[in-house]
Design a protein that fits this description.
GO terms for molecular function: metal ion binding; peptidase activity; succinyl-diaminopimelate desuccinylase activity. With about 450 residues, the chain is α/β, with parallel strands linked by helices. It folds into two domains: about 270 residues, Zn peptidases (Aminopeptidase), CATH 3.40.630.10; about 120 residues, Alpha-Beta Plaits, CATH 3.30.70.360. Helices cover about 30% and strands about 20% of the residues. β1 and β2 form a beta hairpin. The longest helix has 18 residues. It is globular, with a radius of gyration of 23 Å.
């Protein structure tokens, strides 16, 4: 570690708690909690850190976007995307400490949003403070911090289009990233897309006595049969005609990058607590570039304590389709509706709930090489891997496609962070190493 890196680590260790109030806000977009308090706090914090411009955008609706702009010592401009909303903490009784009070145990900070995404933002605020006290920022920096990521970022395209000139930059550093199970830093060049649907069916005007199941079909059975017709159990293939038509095949170079990724099926199964064999024979390719169909939940009939002998009249299920970056999520509802009708289920109603396209950065872009080269210098012991796109979804397309910029994720998470779960945490050592890497990226980019 260089002398400058040691100084930055010492500074971060002494000052991260200056911003720890960010974690104390219960900022849950799904429950409309903490949005104003958190966005106002960020507005004031960016001002205190010396931003030349700070604005609260509300002109396109939804939760406010906090925009901040800092002047650096070069002409290069980096746009940071973060979000200030988090998942709920429920079930709270599974936490070992207050989920909204940052608690340090064994070199880890436990709190909701530790990694996703308040922790990433918090340590970027620490870096801004460090720069303001040590000669200024190496590059111009812009921050776009939204409050709807955990509920689908439904306004992000409108804001990006409306404020395109203000968001002009040379590269985008995404909300965050993490080390994989092998300890390597994962540098990620985008995200998959997603389409969420609701399927529902009614088989009668009212629930029936369960004895009538002798001749009356129940809604749950009808729905289960319909769902089963959409996927092959033998190879996980989606049985929806046309669903694969807009998947752009991986290039030879992209295939080589995928082949280099770390993936230990036994370790993956152990860490996730899987009780069944993996469904895919080529999981890395499928994670990067193949659509999935997933049942999020099924709702039907009586589910309280005891029994109620009814034949339910209504059943519904929520599905999500993870999509390759090239796919159009708005096509999915129509394809599924058409396929269900062809399979003999024209009575199944299909609703489109939410979705967003994916995005993948050009692996040959100079900024990609710069981030990878600097990672090689910082993460000497365990190294890094380049992931074409995250296996999750997010609004990267709004910046990659609309602003035509490379979008890369680098950050402070690790495989045991329990993102979205109880006892979400980050390791302080990872946070300091991520800051060292980000500092090196910005200085080299300048």
């Amino acid at each position: 570690m260089t002398e400058e890196a040691n100084a930055l680590k010492k500074y971060a260790d002494e000052h991260w708690q200056d911003f720890s109030d960010l974690w104390r806000f219960k900022t849950i977009a799904a429950q409309h909690l903490g949005i104003k308090e958190t966005s106002d706090w960020l507005l004031q914090t960016f001002k205190q850190l010396g931003a030349k411009k700070v604005e609260l955008w509300t002109d396109q609706g939804g939760n406010p976007v906090v925009f901040a702009e800092f002047t650096g010592n070069s002409d290069q401009t980096v746009l940071f995307y973060n979000h200030y909303d988090t998942q709920p903490a429920d079930p709270v009784d599974q936490w070992d400490s207050d989920p909204f009070e940052p608690t340090v145990r064994d070199g880890k900070i436990f709190v909701r949003g530790a990694e996703d995404d308040k922790g990433e933002l918090l340590f970027r605020l620490v870096l801004l403070k460090y720069y303001q006290e040590h000669g200024g920022l190496p590059v111009n920096a812009k921050f776009y911090v939204e409050g709807e990521e955990e509920i689908g970022s439904s306004h992000v395209v409108k804001y990006t289009q409306a404020h395109r000139d203000q968001l002009a930059a040379d590269a985008v550093i995404w909300e965050g990233g993490a080390k994989n199970a092998a300890g390597q830093l994962s540098i990620t060049g985008g995200l998959r897309g997603i389409a969420c649907l609701k399927l529902s069916v009614a088989t009668a005007n009212a629930d029936l006595h369960s004895s009538l199941a002798s001749y009356a079909e129940s809604a749950p059975w009808r729905l289960v049969k319909a769902l089963n017709s959409l996927r092959s159990d033998s190879n996980n293939h989606i049985r929806v005609e046309g669903i694969y038509d807009d998947v752009t095949p991986l290039t030879d170079e992209e295939q080589k990058l995928v082949a280099k990724l770390s993936f230990d099926p036994q370790l993956i199964s152990k860490n996730a607590g899987l009780t069944r064999p993996l469904l895919s024979q080529q999981p890395l390719v499928d994670l990067a570039n193949e659509p999935t169909i997933n049942i999020e939940g099924i709702t039907a009939g009586y589910q309280e304590e005891g029994v109620k002998t009814v034949t339910p009249r209504y059943a519904s299920a929520k599905l999500d389709f993870r999509l390759a970056p090239s796919q159009d999520p708005t096509r999915v509802r129509g394809l599924v509706q058409k396929q269900l009708a062809a399979n003999g289920f024209p009575d199944i109603k299909v609703e489109y709930l939410v979705g967003q396209p994916g995005f993948r950065s050009d692996v040959n872009h100079p900024f990609v090489k710069l981030v990878c080269d600097t990672a090689q210098e910082v993460y000497v012991k365990d190294g890094y891997e380049y992931v074409l796109n995250s296996y999750g979804a997010g609004p990267a397309y709004a910046f990659g496609r609309l602003l035509k910029l490379p979008v890369l994720s680098i950050g402070l998470g690790y495989a045991g962070a329990h993102v979205h779960g109880a006892n979400e945490n980050i390791r302080l050592a990872d946070a300091y190493q991520a800051l060292e890497h980000l500092d090196l990226v910005l200085h080299r980019f300048a």
